[in-house]
UniProtKB/TrEMBL annotation:
Name of the protein this chain belongs to: Protein kinase domain-containing protein
Source organism: Hevea brasiliensis (Para rubber tree)
Polar residues: bias regions: 598-638, 737-750
Residues annotated as domain Protein kinase: 2-357
Highest taxon of the lineage: Eukaryota
Biased composition (Basic and acidic residues): 658-671
């Protein structure tokens, strides 16, 4: 006895009360007496297909066949057979009569005949798609006949449906029965519901109900005939009306014609087994079938085969039917990448296919896979993601970038591979606008601080360029703390000429963020030095920068002279039309090194501001190969100038405004462990002196240290050194680290031992400098030579 669940049919789209699915509109066609509806799940709204079959009473033979079909579909599982989800029977009352309806819920599908009309494929693409679909149905029939020893009984166009991924699947199992070949003497019907099969689809022995001949035939005999009927309907485009129409082979492809005729052999024993059709038919060998087949067995392929396949896939995808690529290949490719079975080149193919989708579909079908791939430990995958970030970066939301993408990308900043570090750096141009201020200040700027002293010159250069490009995404306090220090102290003093050029361009591009005091005292003095740089490209950029900043200051002067007191001293220039092209990546600068600069002349400046500070102290350093650094001191000390207030920072640049640096904070600002970009190598004579210093001596040598400390001025906010800009002494070489190095010992003919910057002021290898006077702006008296210096002199004279 069957248990009937009673319910009431609601309005359109609401479905049955007891059915956990909503019943939608029916399709125009379906197999047999079934009605095929659209449907959705009441739980999550996911699409389904709902098949319904009605009968006047429980003993209705159509209902009995339908129950057989539901039972068979529930127990038979295969990738090319329709997937069963749910079924129930409902008795409804219509006045005084009752009616029983059988509902079967499956995965979402639509009739093949409707899908063919919707796709509208023609020519080669149609033939390739038909070959792939026919291949799938042949595998389903072969599975039933050869593996399960079952007979479908009614393979035709109506018994095939198509999934959203364009897979063809076999259903309509109402006639399905076991093959009773062992009982050859039985005369009863082997197919209990064979009366459901139309006469045009029946082979001769089934039309005659010759069950003895059927039982003596191979298990595939009946279904091979049905597959032939399906092929005819598929290629002719019309429903089979009578058996004689199968002789019309004009629409059958030539490569399939011989197999078609063998499937429809009049002798059941000579009909072609569907498994042989799959293995031997020439018709199934085409690009689409081979590509999908490779993707389906991807886990069985070795790395060489995968790499070769995925490198060819982007070009191959352009030749395949676009709808099949997007609905079938793309999901397979995304799944393979997500679960690690696909190689890194597959990402290129995924992004190319994704470019054919709408923005909404891309966000649904491709973007989730890409976000998951950022967590991959495969370096090749990470490189590929970063190389193509411009293709999908704009589609990433700010929250996804900040919480899911950036934490994984940031590991590339400290990677041992310079190539990966540079790709990570360049990716920030796309990702930085989507990062929160907390992430930028607390993490990103720390990494950029380290990369600006990276061993690779191209990375140092690109770091400067990136800072210039993302300056607009920094808050005001961070900009004042970071930009000038990064561009002048590091970039303009880099030994790599494109890095110096990048520093100049970055200063020009961010000129609107500097006030008049910063331009006059910190930017111009450092840029002017580069007008005599050894590199012609750097010189040309320096002259343009000097012109630009002088124009800003000149216009400010004109306004203040005219009595305009409303100007804003914190404003530089509002915009520079050419800035975007100026801040290209460093590789273009590397390839164009030695050629004239391609940048255009900078436009006139139209903004001005009043001066808010007194005379400043400027310190100039020139890194020319044969010229010793020169220094110019003004009479006014920077201790008299107000120090700009900056918020507490952990971004790696620290509190170094106007050259003021507290030694006790050196461990907090991230700069204490950074070595100078330029450290002159000692001459052989100096090296011998250093070696002599390390020898054991009878007298202590630590006495000069407190004396040197006592000579330090107590009323100034800065200290000086001999070879570099006194504004950046704390950055070039922190005193705690270098005060004990051998470089602080000199001969009596150069500098005294009480100079606290002796560690970083080693004389040039080929130049013997004259003794300097004590008047260095520090108020210190000339120190008397100590015994240590005399001892070193004696040692050097002995050498």
């Amino acid at each position: 006895m069957f248990k009937f669940l009673k319910g009431v049919v609601g309005g359109s789209g609401t479905g049955l009360k007891d059915l956990p699915y909503n019943i939608g509109e029916p399709y125009p066609s379906a197999w047999g007496s079934w009605t095929h509806h659209h449907g959705t799940s009441k739980d999550d709204g996911s699409p389904v297909s709902i098949f319904s079959l009605s009968g006047s009473n429980a003993q209705d033979r159509h209902l009995a066949a339908g129950r057989n079909g539901v039972k068979r579909l529930r127990t038979v599982r295969h990738p090319n057979i329709l997937s069963f989800l749910y079924s129930t029977e409902v008795e409804t009352l219509d006045g005084s009569t009752s009616r029983i309806t059988l509902y079967m819920v499956t995965e979402p599908v639509m009739p093949l005949s409707e899908k063919i009309k919707e796709l509208g494929l023609e020519g080669t693409q149609r033939d390739e798609y038909y070959a792939w679909g026919l291949h799938q149905i042949a595998k389903a029939v072969s599975f039933l006949n050869n593996d399960c020893k079952l007979v479908h009984g009614n393979v035709c166009l109506a018994s095939v449906v198509v999934t959203p991924t364009l897979d063809w699947k076999l259903h309509a199992f109402d006639v399905l029965s076991e093959f009773d070949g062992n009982n050859e003497t039985a005369t009863g019907p082997m197919l209990q519901y064979e009366w459901l099969v139309g006469p045009q689809y029946k082979p001769m022995e089934l039309a005659k109900s010759d069950w003895v001949a059927i039982r003596k035939s191979p298990p595939w005999a009946v279904d091979s005939w049905g597959l032939g009927c399906f092929i005819y309907e598929l290629f002719s485009g019309i429903k089979l009306g009578k058996t004689e129409e199968l002789r019309n082979t004009g629409s059958i492809p030539k490569s399939l014609l011989q197999d078609y005729q063998r499937l429809l052999s009049s002798m059941p024993s000579r009909r072609m087994n569907t498994s042989k059709l799959i293995e031997n038919s020439e018709y199934f060998h085409n690009k689409l079938v081979d590509t999908i087949h490779f993707m389906e067995i991807l886990t069985l392929k070795d790395s060489v085969e995968k790499d070769t396949f995925f490198r060819k896939l982007p070009n191959l995808a352009e030749q395949l039917p676009r709808q099949i690529v997007l609905k079938k290949l793309l999901p397979l490719l995304a799944s393979a990448l997500e679960f690690g079975s696909a190689a890194a080149p597959a990402l290129t193919a995924l992004l190319k296919m994704g470019s054919w989708l709408s923005a909404e579909e891309f966000n649904i079908k491709v973007l989730p896979t890409i976000v998951k791939l950022f967590a991959s430990n495969d370096r090749a995958i990470r490189v590929s993601l970063l190389q193509h970030i411009d293709q999908y970066g704009e589609s990433l939301s700010a929250q996804v970038v900040d919480e899911q993408v950036y934490p994984h990308v940031a590991t590339g900043f400290s990677d041992t591979s310079a190539f990966l570090r540079e790709l990570t750096l360049k990716s920030m141009l796309v990702l930085a606008p989507k990062l929160s201020q907390r992430t930028i200040s607390g993490s990103l700027l720390k990494y950029l601080s380290k990369l600006q002293v990276d061993e690779e010159p191209a990375i140092r250069t690109n770091t400067t360029i990136l800072l210039g490009n993302i300056a607009s995404y920094l808050n005001e306090g961070t900009r004042k703390r970071v930009l000038i220090n990064a561009f002048t102290v590091r970039a303009l003093r880099d030994t790599f000429s494109p890095a110096r050029g990048a520093g100049i361009m970055a200063l020009c591009a961010t000129s609107s963020y500097y006030d008049m005091n910063e331009i006059a005292t910190r930017i111009l003095p450092n840029v002017v030095v580069l007008t005599i740089d050894a590199d012609s490209d750097v010189r040309s950029k320096a002259f343009q920068a000097v012109d630009q900043f002088l124009q800003i200051v000149r216009q400010y002067h004109e306004k203040t002279t005219a009595g305009d007191t409303t100007a804003d001293a914190t404003m530089g220039i509002s915009s520079l039309p050419g800035n975007a092209s100026l801040l290209g990546w460093a590789m273009s600068s590397l390839t164009l090194k030695g050629k004239p600069s391609e940048q255009a002349s900078l436009p006139p400046i139209n903004s001005s501001a009043p001066l808010t500070s007194a005379a400043s102290n400027a310190s100039l350093g020139m890194d020319t190969p044969s010229t010793a650094p020169a220094r110019v001191n003004s009479s006014t000390d920077l201790a008299d100038q107000p120090v700009p207030v900056s918020p507490t920072s952990t971004d790696g640049w620290g509190e170094i405004e106007n050259g003021i640096h507290e030694e006790q904070d050196s461990d907090k600002d991230g700069w204490g462990d950074i070595e100078p970009l330029e450290e002159p190598k000692p001459s052989p004579a100096l090296a011998n002196i250093q070696a002599a210093q390390k020898r054991p001596v009878s007298q202590p040598v630590s006495q000069p240290k407190p004396q040197a400390a006592s000579l330090r001025p107590k009323n100034t906010g800065k200290v000086t050194k001999d070879e570099d800009d006194d504004l950046w002494g704390s950055i070039a070489a922190p005193a705690p680290k270098t005060s004990s190095k051998p470089l602080n010992v000199k001969t009596t003919s150069t500098l005294d031992d009480d100079d606290p910057w002796a560690a970083i002021a080693a004389p040039p290898p080929t130049t013997r400098a004259k003794p300097l006077s004590a008047g260095r702006g520090r108020g210190a008296k000339t120190a008397v030579p100590k015994l240590g210096a005399q001892r070193i002199n004696r040692t050097s004279s002995g050498m």
